[in-house]
Amino acid sequence: xxxxxxxxxxxxxxxxxxxxxxxxxxxxxxxxxxxxxxxxxxxxxxxxxxxxxxxxxxxxxxxxxxxxxxxxxxxxxxxxxxxxxxxxxxxxxxxxxxxxxxxxxxxxxxxxxxxxxxxxxxxxxxxxxxxxxxxxxxxxxxxxxxxxxxxxxxxxxxxxxxxxxxxxxxxxxxxxxxxxxxxxxxxxxxxxxxxxxxxxxxxxxxxxxxxxxxxxxxxxxxxxxxxxxxxxxxxxxxxxxxxxxxxxxxxxxxxxxxxxxxxxxxxxxxxxxxxxxxxxxxxxxxxxxxxxxxxxxxxxxxxxxxxxxxxxxxxxxxxxxxxxxxxxxxxxxxxxxxxxxxxxxxxxxxxxxxxxxxx
Amino acid sequence: xxxxxxxxxxxxxxxxxxxxxxxxxxxxxxxxxxxxxxxxxxxxxxxxxxxxxxxxxxxxxxxxxxxxxxxxxxxxxxxxxxxxxxxxxxxxxxxxxxxxxxxxxxxxxxxxxxxxxxxxxxxxxxxxxxxxxxxxxxxxxxxxxxxxxxxxxxxxxxxxxxxxxxxxxxxxxxxxxxxxxxxxxxxxxxxxxxxxxxxxxxxxxxxxxxxxxxxxxxxxxxxxxxxxxxxxxxxxxxxxxxxxxxxxxxxxxxxxxxxxxxxxxxxxxxxxxxxxxxxxxxxxxxxxxxxxxxxxxxxxxxxxxxxxxxxxxxxxxxxxxxxxxxxxxxxxxxxxxxxxxxxxxxxxxxxxxxxxxxxxxxxxxx
Lengths: 359, 366
What we know:
heterodimer, A: alpha/beta, six-stranded mixed sheet, 19% strand, B: mainly alpha, two-stranded antiparallel sheet
């Protein structure tokens, strides 16, 4: 009997080792890192157990349903927490939400340990974050993508001005175009951020040269397909290119990505991505991808963390910085003149000197 | 020890024979999970200790575990009941959603009712919606021969999209600055309360499990359901109305899942919101298989899964273990239970006289 058991168990172990070998790359790197960079930074090797002490700063992050390495909001937020944690010598940790019913419980894990700053990611956590902020006035909360209807002094809702980064993309497109025709391939107009990206884009291109013709096309389908239709994105981009457009702005998830990839399959065209630096996420578009109109989630979180430390933490809505992603391989063609135009445009935008079109 | 059983009337032996395969499957799955943890650089003992602490460590944790257990019991009973009639109810998820949204609607739309009455009314509505959603595949199966596996899978999609539409359309929460697709909060009078750390919904679930057990084991209806499940041809020959029985089995299954969804809305979430009931119906299949299609087994396996779900976040927080490991362990359990031949071979259980379970008539049989 015992012999058999040894055999059985070794079999299971071998089998699971094979399993683990396959599974390893995904789960391990993420959880190992958070503790590592933070602990040496904290004075006198403070650990999580010291979070309750006032001199030790601890920053926690609760994801929306999903993982911290999702190449999107959760990941960008976590990167912001790690970078911000380094700036203020803090201990950082995260919990990934698996079940939407656990938002409150996951926040409570950090609150019980005496964490000082809590970052919650995604508008779905909005209500739970407001409640937790009211119940814990000594803890600072940062709600990513959470619009605040009322001001809670210790809660900053980090939201973004999409029209601003769209405007910069428009200025860039206006400077790059030779045919005086630029295109935008967009997800549905049912979603305000998408519309704002386009309003900014149109305004930016026209700001460079009112003669420029902007062909903007919204996906005609509903929410269920508008962001997941790369074929439509590609077809629409092709049509715009047929009408002499030589810069394509793709804003709308996979639909926009389809437009970027289509532009990359033509010679001598430029394309501009959206939300994150799409150089990292859509390598197929490297041939044309000049830049991306991003929401600067990570830097904004770093700023908020610093403000939380020095006591200037803003309650209510905090509009995060919007910017263009690096130019990567196209650095050479971005002349000083274009850079100056971008700076000038940014100043004009910040001075409210730009009128945005309706749609 | 587990092979020869001289005393047939020894009930302990009977129980052991019934539960040994699932028990060994659970242990094997935990073992595999431990090895994966070890290989990925974590301490399995620490991880499991944190998991246990997160599930039962204090009154709050226990409350959450029981909250997570409750819908699993209902979904597990739903799948179990259909199993007994030889039907594979993949549609528990859809039925649960229909129950959850109906209860959520009745919970906020009706105002001014006394608490108990409001709860009962919302529960009844949820049950009816679930039952109706079980009636459709039931009728299709009995009178057109469309296989319930196909129809219930399709109905799941319909339920997901219908509830999404309602939550983002006619029934959407229009209060304040809300932009999220969800229903308004239910009235306080519709909230299912707590009994200390124990959700009343959990107590209801246990009661329902007893009722289902009684129905299946002690009533004519249950006997007929069982015999249809074992052999529908023989049952028809014996004069049973097999079509009606199959239909009613899916109606009861739908009712149970809808009940679970209603309790979830009224007792835990407090409103219907898409995504908050994700996967519960499918976990019901795991629970039913792990519980060997026995209502009491369903309670135990739901508790196990509920504890794993409840403790997962503390495990991640304290032991730095990603919660995906819980999915791996759960899948391994299901794998070992369904492929129980593997367990039998591994642990030399050659013949199993006590705990044989016919799960479903399967494909190609009518």
